[in-house]
Design goal:
This protein is an all-alpha fold and about 100 residues long. The protein contains 3 helices and no strands. Helices cover about 80% and strands about 0% of the residues.
Length: about 100
């Protein structure tokens, strides 16, 4: 149950970031392309094995728990890479808007 709630929370935050970063339809395309090269970086530096971040009772015992760890790690890596791409697009959009306004 805790995994579903945490996954839903992470998906909601990621969706909100994508929504805020996308002022035009092609911003979402940039995010969709940009998250792929960010995935290995996120997997190596941020997420990897998420079982070390969650409480011990979050996963089931035995082989089912191992499968849950793998699925949670993959989903969290994907969602955090998408969130990072959305933050980059949002920052670039704000910076370009301010640069245009300053000149």
């Amino acid at each position: 149950m805790m995994l579903w709630l945490l996954g839903l929370l992470l998906a909601a935050v990621t969706g909100a970031l994508v929504w805020c970063a996308s002022a035009r339809w092609w911003h979402a395309l940039i995010i969709a392309v940009l998250w792929m090269p960010l995935s290995p970086l996120v997997a190596n530096w941020l997420t990897g094995d998420v079982s070390r971040y969650l409480p011990p009772g979050a996963f089931a015992e035995g082989i089912e728990g191992r499968d849950e760890v793998i699925v949670a790690s993959v989903v969290s890596t994907m969602l955090l890479a998408i969130a990072a791409a959305a933050l980059l697009v949002w920052a670039a959009r704000v910076a370009l808007t301010r640069l245009r306004g300053a000149s």
